[in-house]
């Protein structure tokens, strides 16, 4: 209990620290840009931000912050911190608030929202009663509920840093003005700040967009092909093939059958499924074909439903487990597209399970354990799960919801992984488990999902014939393990920093002859490695040996196999690892056995 109490106190202190530093930054910005219009500045995970409207330059272009501006703002912030100005809270009427912020249109809009009720000081929906309060420190006043530190002097002057500037639409709406958002971070002491900044630098080094280009895995070309559409290069496509090959083999072992469905479907399909009512904004515009409208599919599930409906199903036929590596298309706004992790065309390792109510608990257990097994096979070992339960507005019988939620929670308990219950957070059509992984930088990513659907079986009138000859509604479960393959590989690249496990590396070894006279021996060795099933390249370029080794290390190749006079004479290779470690001489047969063992256990090196 004491540990929990201390953690809560620490979290509250960080919240106050970051919230207060956001206000100090806003004052520093206004001091430098007196005409700036201020928007909102909340604390966030690991830091804070504040949005500003700086107006436009004489040529009409949007004014933005320069690196020199950020340096000057940081300097001014330290002066404000040194002043030890008290944070003073005061509740005000809507009229007084309008007077205080008469020249701040974004604040006026927030005040009007608070006056009406239903939103907080950031314009976010809330059920709490409206409170108009301001906080003042020094000469700066902001509309804010708080809480804050006692005074600015409690902000460590050497433990905050402004990190970056980004464009952000007011209230996230592209029809609203574009604002300038400054991101910053602050910590209780300099050591923690330095550790966080190093973590950011490591994240930049692992950025999958940079590594994807350096390792020649994939590319995106917005101008010619379209934003959010990925080109998989030979090495990236090979990795994707290897991952799919492994997963498909495991699906067959787990009792799944494969299906394949079209990329487009008639409008009536999406009307029946409800997508045109609930999901149309995320769908591409229709195609007109022979007077009928077709849509690119945003999901695979309606097609799988039709496969189920294609013939009469008996209770003896269930469960049915159908998997598809199906490519879907969803319209994402250009401002949110991001490498592989936010795209418009992607392939899901999608599956749908149709089962009887009595089979459902066992199917959930199997599915969850299958998720964990697949993710662990790719090197993810730390998990957190979120169980989302029935919302107020929903379809389906309460008894079915109760049974499904109990089965999901029981499976989580048996799997012995940490989970949190998101009460009321389920979709209107069913409860779900979202399985999230932590990568090497302890960032959380959602990959797998197990989701009940009480909606589609009703909409498409799915039935099976029971033992008594009557018709019954099957349970339908959506399931994805990797989720989007594109997103999965974006996370995987960053998790390993491009240094993939040997089984997944597109090139597992490079054979390096020291001089031209060693090329023939190197060629023969490479041929033997390939015959044993290893993916090997021969670097017979004119570069010096050290340069060849360096090139292989930059490409994150697991093994460098060097052949010189002694190696050629003894029919061995000198083995170096991408980590820089030297394993020394091995015969061709010894290295093949060594590498195959690492591949079999899905090891790193």
Account of the protein in words:
The protein is built from 18 helices and 28 strands. It is an alpha+beta fold and about 600 residues long. The chain folds into three domains: about 10-185, 2-Layer Sandwich (Threonyl-tRNA Synthetase, Chain A, domain 2); about 215-260 and about 300-490, BirA Bifunctional Protein, domain 2 (2-Layer Sandwich), CATH 3.30.930.10; about 500-600, Rossmann fold, CATH 3.40.50.800. It is globular. The two termini are about 45 Å apart. Residues about 1-5 have low confidence and may be disordered.
In short:
It contains 18 helices and 28 strands. It has 605 residues and is of the alpha+beta class.
CATH superfamily of the largest domain: Bira Bifunctional Protein, Domain 2
Distance N to C terminus: 43 Å
CATH class division of the largest domain: Alpha Beta
Radius of gyration over all CA atoms, rounded: 29 Å
Q: Count of DSSP E strands? A: 28
Number of domains: 3
Strand order of the largest sheet: 11-15-16-23-20-19-17-18
- Beta-strand proportion: 15-25%
Mean pLDDT, to the nearest integer, reads 94
Low-confidence stretches: 1-5
Fraction of residues in helix:
25-40%
**Could you please say which CATH topology of the largest domain applies here?**
BirA Bifunctional Protein, domain 2
Major sheet size, sense and barrel closure: 8 strands, mixed
Sum up the overall morphology in one term. globular
Q: Any idea what the CATH architecture of the largest domain is?
A: 2-Layer Sandwich
Helix tally equals 18
Computed structural class: alpha+beta
